[in-house]
Design a protein that fits this description.
By secondary structure, this protein is α+β, with helices and mostly antiparallel strands. The chain is built from 9 helices and 8 strands.
Length: about 210
């Protein structure tokens, strides 16, 4: 079901620019950093049963070390994308990568194909999500940016030179289907679901 006019206008206001058919989709920065850090801090005692102290220290500091600081819109990564010809940018946040992907595609009225295996994610995030049976792609992702750009690989290489995890994860098209691939399996992109962090930390806004 399509959004109404007011809802669409509100959604479009969240996205800088618009995706165009044929754009490549780039994720700059690992997803789920903030969610991972919060879980590592809030559930430290339980996680000690599974991980070393060093692993937990690294996990708790992920957002501070790799995602915090200035607002994404003021960051060097955002500026570099704009200078490289990006047509659409969106800072990831609550609901994680999948929420941002749906918002950008819906606001731009495009179809897309995305390969989950290419989305940048830290190993610490994967392992902590496995303990709590969480989907890392729906986990609080402040610090990362979703970008639509005609040719994304050159931008990704620039990010790598900056020491930033980044990858081309898919592309847009003029159709209606929004498909997510993982190996040979595929499914449709759904409307944003509740952030996975709420399964572990109820009112997580209180611990920001």
């Amino acid at each position: 079901m399509r959004l109404g006019k007011k809802a669409m206008e509100a959604l479009q206001a969240e996205v800088t620019g618009r995706l165009l058919p044929g754009n490549e989709l780039v994720v700059a920065g690992p997803v789920a950093l903030k969610g991972t850090s919060l879980i590592a801090k809030e559930k430290k005692e339980m996680l000690r049963e599974h991980f070393s102290e060093g692993f937990l220290r690294t996990s708790a500091s992920l957002y501070r070390d790799f995602g915090a600081g200035e607002k994404p819109e003021k960051s060097a990564a955002w500026e570099k994308a704009g200078n490289a010809g990006a047509t659409a940018l969106l800072a990831l946040g609550e609901g994680g990568f999948l929420s941002a992907l749906w918002k950008m595609a819906e606001a731009s009225s495009v179809g897309l194909d995305v390969d989950f295996r290419k989305v940048p994610v830290r190993q610490e995030t994967i392992e902590i999500c496995e303990i709590f049976d969480l989907n890392p792609y729906r986990l609080l992702s402040d610090g990362a940016i979703l970008i639509g750009i005609p040719a994304g690989e050159a931008l990704v290489q620039e990010y790598h030179r900056m020491g930033l995890m980044a990858a081309v994860i898919g592309q847009t098209n003029s159709g209606n289907d929004r498909l997510l691939y993982s190996g040979e399996s595929a499914r449709y992109l759904e409307r944003p679901a509740e952030d996975e962090l709420k399964k572990v930390i109820g009112n997580f806004q209180e611990v920001f």
